[in-house]
Amino acid sequence: MKTRNFALTLCALALSTASFASYAAIVFTHIGENAPPATLGGHSMTPFLIPPQAALAEGASTGLIPGNPFAGNLTISPNSIKYTLGNSWGTDPWPGNYLGPVFFTGWAASSRTLTLPPNTKAFYFYLQNNDQDRIADTIVVTSSSGVTSGPIVVETDYTTPDVGAHGFGFHSTSGESIVSITVQTNEPQGFGLANFGIAASIATTCASEGYTGTKLTWCKNICEMGYTGATLDMWIHRWINRYRDLPYCAQEGGGEEEPPPQET
Question: Least crowded by CB within 10 Å, which of 44, 148, 193, 213?
């Protein structure tokens, strides 16, 4: 019966939407003093581009860390100060022979939050505390999903190659995105962040799926506006009543449309 098929379609949409909105695990990796990894959790990593970072004036305060090889921005809050390894920040390279820009929190800073570009699936960065005396410091990094490194004790000495610059990474396991990472340390003299790498996916949107006009508007209301409860239910009902199928975000696998229900 037509009514039964409609009910089954509505049920399938609700289940698919619930699956679409859920988040699987974010996993932390302590890279330590190893060179930047080519892959992280199966994601192919791409280093940030150095020239856009190097173009920033030495000593400039910035809330934007340029060089993302994909779309979107990496931001840091509060602002940090751009220095350069081998020049204004220490004299020796970090793991992987990195000699490039470093973003320093400033003195007496114990935390920073990195807001990642959209659709980030994996991300790594390196950190070195601003201390020349080989003191053991504690670092904790936490993703926006709540996954944390726990306290990691590192030895700091920015006058010795590779000592004290540690890498930290997070990756997704089921297509979810990593939104932000917060770094905390007990080092009273601040710390520097550098040598970033990322894996990202190209975002699928209602527009990229080719929807136009009313279908585009309704798709955005279901998939992209963040509506919940009665408002989301209303748009789902409207979609099914008119189009008899599923918008891209609620299809199994996020792509293929299911065939429209057939009357029996």
Answer: 213
